[in-house]
Amino acid sequence: MPHQKNTAKNIFLSDDDADDCMLFSEALQEIYNESEARLTIVNDGMALMEVLEETVPPPPEVIFLDINMPKKNGVECLQEIRSTPKLAGIPIIIFSTSSNKDIVDKTYLHGANYYICKPQSYLLLKKTIELVLSFDFERLSQRPVRESFVIKVA
Question: What is the spatial distance between Cα 106 and Cα 104, in angstroms, rounded to a whole number?
Fold first, then answer.
């Protein structure tokens, strides 16, 4: 996949499931080499907020954010990020096993950029990550209409 910038994409994943983190990392490594993408993984919402406080600026290109995490859940993180001026513009992709309409609606209302139900296969996971990271910053950081909020890759 072509890459326009000389600097690596800085991607954050906040997820408490070790297997999901490993699969995400492996899929990302198959799409980009280390000089093209750098992944920071945290396993709970408190750790995410601490890492963001320590490392921003510069902000990550995107945060993949799980909903169900210990210490601080994804919705709480989303609300805190959106209410913190130096973090508010970071694109956030909700990355959850839940397809519950109420949760999807809640994350949309709180300012997430997109919502992805975790794919059931490695191939779909890889295609989903590749699709999201192919978006330019403008598209990634804009909020789509509600009907286009959930990304589905087949």
Answer: 6
